[in-house]
Each structure stands twice: as C-alpha cells, then as structure tokens.
Amino acid sequence: MGKENGALSGIKVLSFAQLAQGNAGVEYLADLGADVIKIERPGKGAWERSWSGLDTYIKGESVFFLSLNRNQRSMTLNLKEDEGKQIVYRLVARSDVLVENYRPGVMDRLGLGYERLSEINPRLIYASASGYGSDGPYRDKAGQDLLAQSLSGLASVTGKEGDLPTPAGAAIIDIHSGALIAMGILAALFYREKTGKGQKIEVNLLQSAIDLQKEAIVYYLNGGGERSIRRSKSGIGAPFYEAPHGTYATRDGYIAISLTPLKKLGEVLGLNELLEKYDQKDAFSKRDEIKELIQAVIKEKTTDEWLQLLERHDVWCAKVYTYADLVTDPQVQHNHVIKEVKRDDIGNFKVIDFPIRLSESPATIRKPPPKLGEHTEQILRELGYESEIETMKQKGIV
C-alpha cells in the first residue's frame, strides 16, 4: 500500500456516492490522496455491496463494490434520524468536498441539500451527479448507463446496419461521468484557493454520454446530417468513418485496421483490384464493398503475419484482444495497470490502477475497500464523540 502523500492529501471528502457513477468519481479523488468518508446505511450498506456483475463475490464481498471503493473509510449512519443528521453536520463543518448521486431531491428531503450545508460550511464544494440533471422534464426518471447510451444516440450508431442498436460492452458513461465529477471538483478546489468560496457542481449521465460523442454529433450538426448516423453494412468503425476503418477476421483471430490511404493499403496488401478500381474519394461512398474486398484478403493469413507486414509499412493496426490477451499484454504489464490489493477477511484481489501518472505526487492505493461501518467509531471519536457511541449503536443511529 502506498504512502499518504498524494496531490489531494489533506482534502476531506464526504461521500454519499452509490453505484458506478458516483463511486468512480470519488475513487479518483481517494487515489489522489483525499481522506474519503463513505456514508452507508446501518446493517445494509451501500447498494453496490448487494449486487455484482456475473454474480461475482469474494467470500461474500461484491466484486462490483471492490472495483470502485478503495482508499476510503466506511461509516454507517441512519440519515432519517435527527441524531444522524447532526453527525453529518459536524462532518460537513470539517469537510472540503461532498459527493452525492441520489435522485434529484433526495438530499434536500433529508435536510442535506446544498443550500443547507453551505450555510454550515461556505467553503464546501458540493458535487451532485444525476441521470439527467437537477431540473427539467427528465428530472425524476431513472438514470443508468444503458439508458444514457440509448437516449444520447450512442447505441444507435454502434454496430452494423440492420443490427439492434448496440450498447458498448462496458459501463462507459458511468465511468466517464465519474471522471467529469472529479474534474469539476478539482477545478472548484483551485477556484476556492483563489477566492475562498465553495460552490455546487452538477454532472449528469446524459450530458456525459453526449460529451463522449462530441466529434460525431458536431459532424451531424454541421453538414453531416443523415450520413453521420447511417451505420455501415460491413462493420466500419463508426458511421462517420471511411474504409478501411474497422475490424477484420484473420485466419486465426481478428485485427483492426485504422484510417489508411487506399493506394497505400492496396500496395501493402498486394490487392491490385483496390488500386485499379477505386480512388480515395470512394473510401466513404463505397466503403462497404471496399471493406469486403479487403476482408477477403485478410482472412488468408494469421493475425501475427498481418501485424508484422502492416506495421513494417506503418499502417495503423492492432490485434483485437480478448480480456485474456489484455491481462498478459507486455505493455499493460509494463505500465502496471493491474494491481493486487489485500484485505484481511477476503485475501488478495486484483483492481485497475489510477490511469494518470504524476511525477511529484503519484496516486496510490493506500487501503482496500472498507468493510461495512469499519471506521464508524474511529470517525465519531475524531468528531469528539466518546461516551455517546454505545447509545448511538443501541438506538440504530450508527
């Protein structure tokens, strides 16, 4: 485990985050050195403790939870009780940042909205994440990654013509939205250094999904029109790309070939038909037939044979990996992307490291994801409670 000397060392974060969106944002801050207190329900804990993709658990602990909650302390609090709220108020008074991604209005109903808490601590940076925003016609709709991919148009432009709209194979909107949460908080911390003022930050899944498509949507808005959203029959990488951009089946696997001038690719592949029949202006208008022509050649050799040939001629290409390939890749191993963490009750497990290198204040994994309520008493004592702790337990406050 690393030392507590990160860029955000000394910054105190109060987390009411749940699921992937909020927790991804908080974990970035925690990796950078912030002291994060995760507020959870007594007895049950955060929702992500009770669900895990593929039903994957390690000795009863959700792998979903383990993937997004390291470097944090867990405190259980009953927020429906006044005594629980009073503890939150004490925490807010000494916190720099609060992060929440309940549905809009929940924190206000609990007496924990921005207006109330900024009265207690005017320097507080209050980050609120939601599905669609804190107001507007979709305010009360359920927000979730698949729904955001669908409403943003992303699923409609992924896959081949005739396929169902195709969502990405990972919760990319949740994680991007989490990164935007962290970005907003860092900007607000810098602003506070200059002015002494806290502020409220809002991030939502829908806008995060649109942000991921800023190149594609700007094409649509500025002359691309229907061409920007028309998927190819052959599997070109995205509606706005030309041939050969896409994936191809080799004799023993798959390879991706990026944008390459047709003349150059025809010469490298020895594909005379590509040289004689098509000009570069055909790369978009005839992209399906060009891609199919290239595919007929690519299937004749192995992936490694093509990689050696294409890379020798500086054609942008890559093997299409499975996760099994990914975790043994020499560059992934060199970059130390995968780290092993140990928690006493469940042993060792693997996680993905923080994705940014900082030469002077590196992000670190200092502690494993916490057990439910593991740090409740410790935090209460930091707040000045002592004799009251047992009574709070008996009353279900903590």
Which helices and strands occur, and which strands form pairs?
Layout: E1 12-16, H1 19-31, E2 35-40, E3 57-58, E4 61-62, H2 63-66, E5 72-76, H3 82-93, E6 97-100, H4 106-109, H5 114-120, E7 125-130, H6 145-151, H7 172-195, E8 199-204, H8 205-212, H9 214-224, E9 246-249, E10 254-257, H10 262-269, H11 272-277, H12 282-285, H13 287-298, H14 303-312, E11 317-319, H15 323-326, H16 330-334, E12 338-343, E13 347-352, H17 376-382, H18 389-395
Parallel strand pairs: 1-2, 1-6, 2-5, 6-7, 7-8
Antiparallel strand pairs: 3-4, 9-10, 10-11, 12-13
Give an overview of the whole structure.
By secondary structure, the chain is of the alpha/beta class. A hairpin with a 2-residue loop joins strand 3 and strand 4 (61-62). It is elongated, with a radius of gyration of 25 Å. The strands form 4 sheets. The protein has a 6-stranded parallel sheet with strand order 5-2-1-6-7-8, sandwiched between helices. Helix 1 (19-31) packs across helix 7. It has helices at residues 19-31, 63-66, 82-93, 106-109, 114-120, 145-151, 172-195, 205-212, 214-224, 262-269, 272-277, 282-285, 287-298, 303-312, 323-326, 330-334, 376-382, 389-395; strands spanning 12-16, 35-40, 57-58, 61-62, 72-76, 97-100, 125-130, 199-204, 246-249, 254-257, 317-319, 338-343, 347-352. The mean pLDDT is 97. The protein has 18 helices and 13 strands. It has 2 domains: 12-212 and 332-395, Rossmann fold (3-Layer(aba) Sandwich); 234-249 and 254-319, 2-Layer Sandwich (formyl-coa transferase, domain 3). The protein starts with 11 loop residues before the first strand and ends with a helix. Helix content is 38%, strand content 15%.
